[in-house]
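Supplementary Methods. Inverse-folding protocol.

Structures were first reduced to a discrete structure-token string of length 80. This string, shown here, constituted the complete conditioning input.
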């Protein structure tokens, strides 16, 4: 299992891209990539420049996108 949080410059995504050949037997990859995309969140009408890279990495690891049936926030602003 890979659990990811990526910063605003996508350090974790870039690391995965460079090391994916050394990663094997991944069953689940989850986390907050900070990538907003209409493919997995219909409230966004666009996709990020990083979403194709993320999909390429997951394809290379033989992983599929699993969508939540309930679209709920994964984080909340501090001022709420």
């Amino acid at each position: 299992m890979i659990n990811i949080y990526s910063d605003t410059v996508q350090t974790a995504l870039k690391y995965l891209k460079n090391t994916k050949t050394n990663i094997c037997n991944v069953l689940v990859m989850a986390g907050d990539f900070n990538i907003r995309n209409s493919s997995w969140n219909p409230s966004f009408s666009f996709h990020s420049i990083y979403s194709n890279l993320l999909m390429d990495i997951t394809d290379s690891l033989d992983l599929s996108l699993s969508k939540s049936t309930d679209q709920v926030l994964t984080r909340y602003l501090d001022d709420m």
